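Input set for joint prediction.
Command: fold jointly, output tokens.
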Amino acid sequence: MGLWNVTLSLWSGFQTTLLLFFLTLAFALPLGLLISFGSMSKFAPLRYAVKIFVWIIRGTPLMLQIIIIFYVPALFFGTPISTRFIAAVIAFVINYACYFSEIYRGGIESISNSQFEAGQALGMTKSQIFFRVILLQVIKRIAAPMSNEVITLVKDTALARVIAVVEIIRVAENIMSGGLIWPLFYTAVFFLLSVGILTLMFGFLEKKLSYFRA
Amino acid sequence: MKKVLLITAIMVAALFVACGKKDNVLVVGVTQFEPMNFLDANGNWTGFDTEFALAVGERLGMEIQFQEITWSQKFIELQAGTIDAIWNGMTANTVDSATGRPRHEDVDFSYSYMLNTQCVVIRTDRVGEFTSAADLAGRTAAAEEGSAGDTVANEVIGADGSFIGVVAQIDTFIEVKSGAVDFAVVDSILAHQIAGTGDFGDLMVAELSLGARQEVYAIGLPIGSDLVEQINNAIMELYSDGTLRRIAEKYGLEESVVIGTQPISSMH
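tokens >
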């Protein structure tokens, strides 16, 4: 197998990696916001329930969560999740939403209370204050920690192979079964390029949002 | 906020929509294991067990789907129903080191269809160090976690040796090549195919008598499955009409194909 054929094979696996990455972001970004609202709720039972949930998810390995989400419904309830890939997406979404929620919470709580009060004095509703006044400032403040999580996500996708989702590293391991070792190391190029692009995009985003600096 | 809630709820619900499993499909759990199951240049499954499974599927009028699994999770996969059969050069008459039990307690086996032994793979430049099985004691050995090789490796290294369990049989080749371990214990069917080829050209099968008993490969099915009898009948038909031998010849395995009808539990 030459460089070109190996690249093509790895690329087919990397498409799975990318799909997992983008689906996780698409679902976990809004879900994380919802969880952060729960963890800041004035209703104590909800607040504690959410905090315990976040503790469980952040307190156990993602790899274990993937295994549990794929096998437990089938083993104990007789209803297997339709595909391994969907099971992986569910596990990644829940896990990353919990991490995102804490970043959101830090960002929201860093906005001074006087802005909420000013909004109320102008007769704005709670959601108007949040979406029109607070949100963009929060996005600017959390851009750097979020870029950390997003970059970690690119590489965490490799964990999905524990339930035999054929992502790029699994493809490389399969090529190795045929007696070719270097493609495994070559997968690093795919990750480096992706993270490079993401780093540039986050740099661009931060520049765009810099006019918020008072 | 309500909108966020609604959108999230819809997206989460969409994730859980599952499609029902089709009848008349046999999902076969496999790992990459030359020459039994492996992907050809076009990414299609091929190999002895692959063609064997397809031939049996044809006899039974069932569609065969191959699902790649992680070997150490094979019994969980079968119990969970995420696969219907383990058909991947599985040694039947051995204790599974992951469960600590004989494998026939966790699955019902078909007739056995192939002979196998465990063998030792070493680096060619170290062949002088390994002249008898006694030289293996106290060494560092690698084998696939939960495999028959795992059990044999732990026997031959003895109490002073150390054992490295890896995820796939092929990983043991890297362990040996890099010098991280002294030797690996793997299926001879695999070792003779891979050792000495490609990047593993500097590895070889050591001519050592392990005293390891004769092992047989069989198909693992859920306990109490009514497929066992149907598959056994199909195996006998494919054996008598020469199909099995023709497939074996394609992969140089004709010497190894031997049908065994006695219960696996009597072969320990």
